[in-house]
Amino acid sequence: MDYPVDMTITPEVSAHFDDATNTITYVVKDPSSKHCAIIDSVMDIDYAAGRITYDHADALIDEIEKQELMLDWIIETHVHADHLSAAPYLQQKLGGKIGVGERIIDIQETFGKVFNEGTEFQRDGSQFDGLFKDGDTYQIGNMQAFAMYTPGHTPACMVHVIGNAAFAGDTLFMPDGGSARCDFPGGDAGMLFDSIQKVLSLPDDMRLFMCHDYGPNGRAIQWETTVAAQKADNIHVGGGKTREDFIKFRTERDAQLAMPKLIIPSLQVNMRAGNVPKDSDGNAVLKVPVNGI
Predict the structure, then answer these.
(1) Is 120's pLDDT higher than 90?
(2) How far apart are CA 124 and CA 142, in angstroms?
(3) For the stretch 42-59, what's the b/e string if a residue is b when 16 or more beta carbons lie within 10 angstroms of its beta carbon?
């Protein structure tokens, strides 16, 4: 298969694990320049206290400033339901463009209704600087990256391929973790299976970086694997498992799962590119729709 970028380049990848949400954020550096991107950042929230802080984001800023890097892109692989994005805070401190898949408009339309957002909430993705279509390319210094459309977990999921590294978002977990749920609005198990096959069509030695890891069976947290390892060992799709098998398993499994603890604040913030909604007086507020999700 032909791909639109040079996948022999090895970007420098630094991983930052957030214990509170089991999220891994990446700083991805072009090996031939001082340019970088951040993928799937985290803003800290004490939901019970209604308090937002930026320790996780500040660690990214510290790393980038110490290395005197230039931030080109702040990438969201999808609209996360389990953590809040720190994209606007990072952009304010470091610059760069905030990018997401173009189907963000589907998420905004769906959850704009759930959260009873008024007409002032734009449902056209304009809160983001870049809206990626399938196969779109973008630059990180001298290194070209491309976005691969991978719906199923959400309608707006993208896997980002940067040199010989692919950042999977929630399309895949580590081989012993399997795959993400498909029962959110717009999710679809069959579509996720097809999207995973698309990712597994990448070269066998492609490095795959996960957005989340939960340490199944008590193992240490991990976030990097390969396409070949996923093909062989992924417990949900590896070893020749069929589409029908996957749909049956995923549907039954999803019916048993509780909602993510931070889904209410996460969706409101992330569909706004990481901006916290405000009331008519300009105060940051979050809504809790009752029986809305």
Answers:
(1) no
(2) 30
(3) bbbbeeeeeebebebbee
User: Treating both helix axes as pointing N-terminal to C-terminal, what angle do 189-200 and 243-254 enclose, rounded to 10 degrees?
Assistant: 130
282 located within any domain? no
Answer yes or no: is pLDDT of 202 > 90.
Answer: yes
Tokens 């005197």 -> residue: 68
In terms of Cα–Cα distance, which of 125, 242, 117, 271 is closest to 184? 271
The structural domain count of the chain equals 1
| Single-letter residue type at 42 | V
pLDDT above 80 (res 2): no
In a domain, 279, yes or no: no
Write the DSSP assignment of 108-123 as a string of letters. HHHHHHHTT--TTS--
DSSP assignments along 51-109, one per residue: EEE-HHHHHHHHHHHHTT-EEEEEE-SS--SSSB--HHHHHHHH--EEEEETTHHHHHH
* pLDDT at residue number 240: 87
Q: Are 34 and 68 in contact (CB under 8 A)?
A: yes
CA 186 to chain centre: 16
Alpha carbons 76 and 266: distance in angstroms, whole number: 13
Whether 4 maps to a domain, the answer reads: no
CATH number of the domain at 94, please.
3.60.15.10
Domain assignment present for residue 147? The answer is yes
Report residue 94: phi and psi, to 5°.
Answer: -125, -10
- Cα separation of 55 and 275, whole Å? 17
Q: Please, which residues bridge with residue 36 across strands? A: 29, 71
